[in-house]
């Protein structure tokens, strides 16, 4: 994986449970996250670990992969987390193996800081120097799309990817509204260093389909 990773943070003025449901329910997740077309759970253990298959449709092709995730809803500090590992053997996918986390942090002003840190091994070799910024941008754009949905009630489907060109719509999703590095940190830092312990406990997602 790369020396650094991808970090995105947004502040959402919505109840913690609303943010959790919109991000943990696969049918809701794919509505706002442009990185996925479908996410289908295949099994769940008694400990809450969920295995799933995912797809991302692109022109003339559909990338398919498998993953495993585990959420924490009861933590002493009042936050929640979700850890994830995923993989694909598709030679056309720009991502091979990846891992990361989501963190949900209630703020004093009633908002929820929704944070992700993740990294992946490239499927396209040196072309990752171009791909990685695009994936980081897509993550941030999706986070702002989620924020707009939960704060205003405007469905994510009202903001298709090409709405990035709707310059006359000041209220459109914009990646630039999100933070791309932690407070006092660097965009090129190892953002997995702040991952919850559950990430280290997740099994290899290969062969989970």
TrEMBL record:
<feature type="region of interest" description="Disordered">
    <location>
        <begin position="176"/>
        <end position="209"/>
    </location>
</feature>
<dbReference type="InterPro" id="IPR023393">
    <property type="entry name" value="START-like_dom_sf"/>
</dbReference>
<dbReference type="Pfam" id="PF10604">
    <property type="entry name" value="Polyketide_cyc2"/>
</dbReference>
<protein>
    <recommendedName>
        <fullName>SRPBCC family protein</fullName>
    </recommendedName>
</protein>
<feature type="compositionally biased region" description="Basic and acidic residues">
    <location>
        <begin position="198"/>
        <end position="209"/>
    </location>
</feature>
<dbReference type="InterPro" id="IPR019587">
    <property type="entry name" value="Polyketide_cyclase/dehydratase"/>
</dbReference>
<feature type="compositionally biased region" description="Basic residues">
    <location>
        <begin position="176"/>
        <end position="186"/>
    </location>
</feature>
């Amino acid at each position: 994986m790369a020396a650094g990773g991808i970090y995105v943070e947004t502040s959402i003025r919505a109840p913690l449970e609303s943010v959790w449901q919109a991000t943990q329910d696969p049918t809701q997740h794919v509505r706002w996250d442009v990185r996925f077309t479908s996410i289908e759970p295949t099994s769940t253990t008694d400990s809450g670990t969920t295995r799933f298959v995912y797809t991302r449709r692109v022109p003339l092709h559909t990338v398919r992969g498998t993953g495993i995730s585990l959420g924490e809803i009861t933590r002493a500090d009042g936050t929640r987390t979700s850890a994830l590992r995923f993989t694909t053997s598709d030679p056309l996918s720009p991502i091979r193996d990846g891992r990361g986390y989501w963190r949900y942090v209630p703020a004093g002003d009633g908002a929820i800081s929704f944070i992700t840190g993740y990294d992946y091994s490239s499927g396209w070799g040196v072309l990752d120097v171009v791909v990685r910024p695009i994936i980081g941008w897509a993550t941030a754009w999706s986070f702002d799309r989620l924020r707009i949905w939960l704060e205003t009630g405007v469905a994510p489907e009202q903001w298709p990817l090409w709405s990035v060109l709707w310059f006359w719509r000041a209220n459109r999703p914009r990646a630039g509204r999100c933070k791309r590095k932690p407070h006092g940190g660097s965009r090129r830092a190892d953002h997995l260093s702040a991952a919850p312990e559950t990430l280290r406990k997740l099994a290899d997602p290969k062969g989970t389909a």
